[in-house]
């Protein structure tokens, strides 16, 4: 008996030291791999990581509660892998039973799985894919947080510039309307011109009040994103251009799409887990009751076989559910791929369109500045009126406002492209968590 016990204990120890004893695969060989850019591959032409602008964005991302929660989720996913792998190791249990006479009998049990049809391996594989999905989801969240910070900076910078422009326009309008008032008081102007000028001043005051409101709203959003009130806004550099890549390659490296692909892998692994759940389990078991019970010689070694025979149809239902979830996830994956392709195409087209409109708007500013100077020159020689100068000033203000808005749109559109492809993290130098499966 002792010889057999020695052999069995040796078998248990050897079984607990290897995961390959079952000879099964953790992953389905037909599963589609997650497409990940090659390590160290540079998808960008240049970088803004060393600018004050990038430092501000990184600070926002690093101090976000969402980032802290995501980092904790990645660490937890690694722990879940370790916990599942623990099933490969010998298990020790203690229990107490009572004899017919009411005497307690302590029992110590050592067990080791020898073969379970790949059930443990499939669950470990599931936890590994789930961990990778969690990691990719965190990258996607960091990507979104970075772009949110950029939008916040761009919006406040734009609104401050619009406020400054509105104040400048009001100051210029005030000078002209005061001149109109002086001329009217001296009997050299008409009521119509004076009222027109006063109307222009009221419009300029309204525009300034609206611009100030927009600044306050943007400031409140800044506080929400960055946690502090804004100071001087750093210069917003142009986004780095993407290296030569096809639209398909850009979409495939999107963190959102890679996350959804990982979700499909999770669903596929769940099918494998459900299918293997009905396979038998063979375990080596060593028990002792310390010579206080009915076990011969106080210890016994045995092989235990567990075979699920009937579970009310739940196993078959679990497999069908897992397969349905897989089909749904794959459909969601394709839908997201098409959505990202549309978003990328629109972002690229918007970037090109804005640059064309911005060039035209800047030219319009130059022309309107010349028109304003011409109107003043005509006024000096008596061939124009102050109202005509006010008209020229209004057109110049509209052109300058349009330039400010288009410059903000251009910066946003440039970084929106990097947000779609996921390259925004590398462009800004945002710290990224390590893949828990490596």
TrEMBL record:
Localisation per UniProt entry: Cell outer membrane
Swiss-Prot/TrEMBL keywords: Cell outer membrane, Coiled coil, Membrane, Transmembrane, Transmembrane beta strand, Transport
**Which GO cellular component terms, listed alphabetically, does the Swiss-Prot or TrEMBL entry include?**
cell outer membrane; efflux pump complex
Q: Which residues form a coiled coil?
A: 319-357
Domain of life here? Bacteria
What is a GO molecular function of this protein?
efflux transmembrane transporter activity
| Similarity annotation | Belongs to the outer membrane factor (OMF) (TC 1.B.17) family.
Name listed for the protein in its UniProt record: Outer membrane protein TolC
Q: What organism does the UniProt record list as the source?
A: Ruegeria conchae
């Amino acid at each position: 008996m002792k010889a057999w016990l020695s052999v069995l204990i040796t078998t248990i120890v050897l079984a607990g030291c290897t995961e390959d004893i079952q000879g099964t695969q953790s992953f389905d060989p037909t599963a589609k791999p997650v497409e990940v850019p090659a390590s160290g591959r540079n998808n960008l032409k240049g970088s803004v990581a060393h600018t004050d602008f990038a430092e501000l964005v990184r600070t926002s991302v690093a101090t976000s509660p969402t980032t802290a929660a995501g980092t904790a989720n990645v660490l937890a996913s690694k722990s879940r892998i370790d916990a599942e792998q623990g099933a490969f190791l010998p298990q020790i249990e203690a229990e107490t039973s009572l004899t017919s006479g009411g005497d307690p009998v302590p029992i110590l049990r050592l067990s080791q799985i020898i073969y379970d049809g790949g059930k443990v391996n499939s669950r470990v594989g599931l936890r590994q894919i789930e961990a990778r999905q969690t990691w990719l989801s965190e990258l996607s969240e960091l990507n979104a947080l970075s772009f949110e910070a950029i939008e916040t900076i761009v919006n406040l910078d734009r609104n401050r510039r619009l406020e400054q422009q509105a104040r400048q326009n009001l100051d210029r309008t005030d000078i002209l309307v005061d001149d109109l008032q002086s001329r009217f008081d001296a009997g050299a102007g008409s009521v119509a011109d004076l009222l027109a000028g006063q109307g222009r001043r009221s419009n300029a005051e309204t525009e300034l009040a609206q611009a100030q409101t927009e600044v306050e709203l943007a400031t409140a959003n800044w506080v929400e994103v960055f946690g502090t009130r804004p100071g001087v806004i750093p210069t917003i550099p142009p986004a780095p251009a993407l290296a030569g890549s096809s639209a398909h390659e850009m979409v495939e490296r999107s963190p959102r799409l890679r996350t959804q692909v990982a979700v499909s892998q999770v669903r596929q692994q769940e099918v494998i887990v459900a299918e293997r759940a009905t396979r038998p389990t063979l375990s080596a078991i060593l028990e002792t009751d310390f010579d206080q019970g009915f076990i011969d010689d106080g210890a016994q070694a045995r092989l235990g076989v567990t075979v699920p025979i009937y579970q009310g149809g739940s196993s078959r239902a679990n497999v069908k559910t897992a397969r349905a979830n897989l089909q749904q996830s794959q459909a969601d994956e394709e839908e997201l791929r098409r959505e990202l392709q549309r978003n990328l195409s629109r972002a690229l087209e918007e970037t090109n369109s804005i640059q064309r409109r911005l060039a035209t708007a800047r030219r319009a500013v130059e022309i309107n500045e010349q028109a304003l100077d011409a109107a003043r020159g005509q006024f000096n020689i008596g061939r124009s009126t102050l109202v005509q100068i006010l008209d020229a000033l209004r057109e110049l203000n509209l052109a300058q406002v349009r330039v400010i808005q288009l410059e903000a749109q251009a910066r946003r559109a440039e970084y929106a492209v990097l947000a779609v492809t996921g390259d925004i993290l590398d462009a800004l130098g945002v710290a990224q968590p390590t893949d828990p499966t490596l």
